[in-house]
Amino acid sequence: MNNNWLENLKISKRQNEKRFAVLLDPDKIPTGEELYKWLNEIEQSRATDILIGGSHLSKGNTEELVKNAKKQTSLPVVLFPGSPEQVTEHADVLLFLSLVSGRNADLLIGRHVEAAPLIMVMDIETIATAYLLVGDGPLTTAAYITQTLPIPSAKPELAVATASAAVLLGMQAIYLDAGSGAANSIPTEVVSAVSNAVDVPIIVGGGIQDFEGMERVWAAGADLVVLGTVLEKVRDFSQLTPS
Q: Is residue 239 part of a domain?
């Protein structure tokens, strides 16, 4: 494989090779020896990628976590930043997220202006990524922090219109997220509708609890499935293998 993460994701999409990422929130993962064990478990699992970041960063050290992940695993380390403070050149890839499902100008372009001068001098692959929150409640951390309303789960046409507009604006990937700690994953009807409407890679996260849930989302058209909260709680990859 070459070193271009987006191109590799596109190749996986064309070949129908589904990928699975573990999302590590610097505020929620263990430290010290426990972190070492956790990263080793990720390395030994079927995970293909590591995402690092979160909606709210109060005490976690993103750069230190990225360095540890790079040192202790062979997986691509992808930044999923909730703010410019979560950007570091030590990662392999940066998802340059624009919250297109909301109307908060700060998260559509404002924070990007803050981060751009720093990113431009970094040697890091940067992917313009349309970020869509989808769901009906209860309120997730992402929805609260961004002060935006998710796209209703029963309105796949709104998700399609939003994703299509993002692609026309030049976005290179679509990230559909139910939000951290979501009670339910994004309906497969929404994933299928978006996947059928656009030709860029589709990343889906939030509310997925087990391998069967991953398979449903993959079958609906997701190219990369992301799990975070469920693994933070139990740190058990056995539920992410076929029964």
A: no
